[in-house]
Sequence to fold (136 residues):
Amino acid sequence: MPPMPSVLFVCVHNAGRSQMAAGWLAHLAGDRVQVRSAGSAPREQVNPVAVDAMREVGIDISAERPKLLTADAVEASDVIITMGCGDACPILPGKRYEDWKLDDPAGQGIDAVRVIRNERSRPGCGVKVNERRLPC
Fold:
C-alpha cells in the first residue's frame, strides 16, 4: 500500500486561510490524508472569526495553534498549497506547489470570512498526490 498522501497549507500568519483549508481537508478526508498547516510569521492564536466561521459548517478548529513554517514540514509533504506567503515559502525540488489567491481574513468580520471560507470549501479535492487523487 502506498504511503498516506500529505498536504501542507501555508500562509503568512497560519491563523486564518491555512487553518480553514486544513480544517476542511481534515474533515473531508479523515484519516486518508495527512494534513498540515504552517505560517512564515505565525500569530499567537487562530483568528477567532475564522474559528466561528468554521464552526458554522460543523468543523472545529478551536484547538489548533499557528505553527512556524519549517523546511522539514515542506520536505514531509507531497503537496504544498500556499496562500500569500511569497518568498518566505521554501521551494524544494520534487514537490508539487499550488498557490491559491485568497483574501486574508485578518481584521475582517464574519461575513467577509464566510466568503473566504467558501471560496475553497473543498480544499485539495481532486488534487493529484503520488499518482492518486485526494478524496472529495
DSSP finds four helices and six strands in the chain. The radius of gyration is 14 Å. The longest helix spans residues 17-29.
